[in-house]
Amino acid sequence: AVTRFASGGEESLMQDLASWAQWALTRSLLVRNAALAADLSAESLQSNLEARAECAALAYGADPFLTLAHLSAFVADPSGAQEGVHHIGFRRLLERIVELWHRDGAPGAVDPEANLVAQLHRMPRDKIVQYARQLVREYGF
User: Fold this and answer.
1) 2 pLDDT exceeds 50?
2) CA quadruple 30, 31, 36, 39: dihedral positive or negative?
3) Residue 2: exposed, middle, or buried by beta-carbon count in 10 A (0-12, 13-18, 19+)?
4) Which of 5, 25, 71, 113 is most buried (most C-beta within 10 Å)?
5) Which of 89, 92, 87, 53 is CA-nearest to residue 73?
6) What global pTM score does this model have?
7) What are phi and psi of 11, to 5 degrees?
8) What share of the chain is helix, strand, coil (3-state, %, to 5)?
């Protein structure tokens, strides 16, 4: 036996199903368009995951300088290798770290107005951890 809605009859059931189908299609299109607008491509998602993983290593790992060196080496690879998800994610993470360092007055830098990426090795350990933990909170984990 087919269960009928309290509102009555097959006609009402068909209207409910048609309304649900229209809602589901509209929602699906809205989600797809939002995903495209937010760049939720596989490459973008993977690069964000890579950045988050390295950010957690900076924030909570044993040696933030080792992680910072790893990030820098990946981004500055002179081999001309095609940019992959690691390069994209690591570059974005380094840009955010340098941005936070610059906003903070670039403590430890020889010249805060010069190329800060070239001075990353001068960033104090506690500042690396502070900035990384700030980003971890922004990432929501």
Assistant:
1) no
2) positive
3) exposed
4) 71
5) 87
6) 0.69
7) -60, -45
8) 70, 0, 30
